[in-house]
């Protein structure tokens, strides 16, 4: 029997370990059993598409934790050059990759609109009137039918060229690509505030989208993130949702 090897990466919800020639993503004990099956199901749906995703080999319980056994991503991370090189080339490369995701049909994946609505409904920092306003604002935005990664940022891109793999598809869904770009903006705004708007502009320029169309998703996207347990971001998320000055 293969033994779990060295730690390859760690995030809020899971850790990734060597497992022979493969990678084992183990969700933290606080995560639900459903998380591992959800990510495996998403990746299985995405296998039919021309996207650089890891192939799933098994889902199961490993040493008391639920996890997904999948292809191992290259050790090099796109974030290393994204952080160290401040030019437009990295922004454009990331935007090109994001666009390639959005060119694929999202049939079979969960609805992005339904997910955002559910998270806004259960966000504890919202009062009834704010919740109602945000839900109405969400309903006014155009739905879509494209693959959306749901957590697209430089740390989820590994390798380059033909060996490139995009990881962490737990929140993959079917929806409007502009909402997915707005989600990336929110993530970058906290981690790399000087590059967040540059990325939005790079994607808009590449795809012919309007920056205003991307930022129109900001209130519901920010409000939905309030459910993710990132307490150090909550004040900023409330501002982005238009709920505080």
From TrEMBL:
Signal peptide: none annotated. Residues 8-203 form the Aminoglycoside phosphotransferase domain. Keywords: Transferase. GO terms for molecular function: transferase activity. This is Aminoglycoside phosphotransferase family protein. It comes from Rhizobium leguminosarum.
């Amino acid at each position: 029997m293969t033994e779990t090897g060295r730690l390859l990466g760690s995030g809020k919800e899971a850790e990734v370990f060597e497992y022979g020639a493969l990678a084992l993503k183990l969700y933290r004990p606080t995560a639900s059993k459903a998380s591992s099956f959800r990510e495996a199901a998403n990746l299985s749906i995405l296998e039919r598409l021309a996207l650089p995703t890891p192939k799933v080999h098994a889902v199961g319980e490993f040493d008391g934790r639920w996890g997904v056994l999948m292809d191992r991503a290259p050790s090099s991370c796109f974030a290393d050059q994204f952080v160290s090189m401040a030019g437009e080339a990295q922004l454009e490369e990331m935007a090109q990759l994001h666009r390639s995701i959005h060119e694929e049909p999202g049939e079979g994946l969960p609805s992005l609109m339904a997910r955002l609505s559910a998270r806004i409904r259960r966000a504890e920092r919202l009062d009834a009137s704010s919740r109602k306003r945000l839900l109405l604002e969400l309903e006014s935005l155009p739905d879509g039918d494209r693959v959306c990664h749901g957590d697209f940022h430089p740390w989820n891109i590994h390798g380059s060229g033909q060996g490139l793999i995009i990881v962490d598809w737990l929140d993959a869904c079917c929806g409007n690509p502009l909402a997915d770009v707005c989600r990336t903006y929110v993530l970058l705004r906290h981690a790399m505030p000087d590059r967040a708007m540059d990325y939005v502009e790079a994607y808009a320029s590449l795809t012919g989208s309007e920056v205003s169309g991307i930022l129109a998703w900001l209130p519901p996207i920010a409000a939905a993130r309030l459910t993710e347990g990132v307490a150090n971001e909550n004040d900023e998320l409330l501002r982005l949702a238009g709920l505080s000055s």
